[in-house]
Amino acid sequence: MAIFSDGFESGDFTAWTSTFGAPTVQSTTKHHGTYAVYLNGNEGCSKTILTTAIGYIRAYYYCDTLPGTGGKTVNLLMLTNAAYSYYVTCRINNNVFDLYLNENGVTTTASSGITASADTWYCLEFLRDVTNDHAELWINAVSKTTIDATITNNATLAVCQAYGSGSPTIDIYADCVVVDSAYIGVETAVKKGSSLAATMTEMLNSKMLFSACNRFPKLTTRRF
Predict the structure, then answer these.
(1) Measuring CA to CA, which residue among 16, 7, 12, 83 is closest to residue 45?
(2) What is the pLDDT of residues 41-61, one digit of tens each?
């Protein structure tokens, strides 16, 4: 079962520890289910989680407007300590996705080489591995870049945000946030119109569906 999973289907931020800025849960633009969060400017939500040596965080992001070039960056996914002095984050940096490590002011950047496009959903996931001092970024379930450097086991918050530098103008939507100790991967689609769509999505997010299926014996087919 996932350490944390939320697709904003409650219609609010009850699953999160806190918010900053004025993020909005809305139903117009979403990846799965009924709701997703809208982030404009320096906004986001954070969740206090248990510190783990190996942590994965994944979410879907959709940009109406990109931050632009000329030193403009926007942090999206983040595993960080409460003081934001040690963290790993997936960013859009000069309109390109990259992986960014901050170890109390000592920074390392690894570009994915993938330029973000507006009006497109991206599945972003990264690994923060303290045991092996390794970080890795996947975009749409394809590994794009890595960082091998000292990583401090000090992450206590999972953050879903649009926090920029260089005064970017941004409109970003985020959905299907999951934190786990194992690779998460892309969301499994549920057929549109199904009355089970919301329930199935939450189960798939938390990996409950796989566990539940394994509890039942295999069925055999008889021929008459």
Answers:
(1) 16
(2) 789 999 999 878 899 999 999
Residue 168 phi/psi, 5-degree rounding, is -75, 150
Where does the chain show beta strands of DSSP type E?
A: 4-6, 18-20, 24-26, 36-40, 43-48, 54-65, 73-80, 86-93, 96-103, 106-115, 121-129, 134-139, 142-148, 157-165, 171-180
Q: Which amino acid is at 34?
A: T
Q: Are 74 and 197 in contact (CB under 8 A)?
A: no
DSSP state of 11: S
Task: Report pLDDT digits (tens) over 175-201.
Answer: 999 999 999 999 875 434 434 344 444
Residues 7/205, Cβ–Cβ less than 8 Å? yes
Domains of the chain, with CATH numbers? 4-188 (2.60.120.200)
- Structure letter (DSSP) for residue 84: S
pTM above 0.90, yes or no: no
Instruction: Note whether 141 and 157 are within 8 A (CB).
Output: no
DSSP state of 144: E
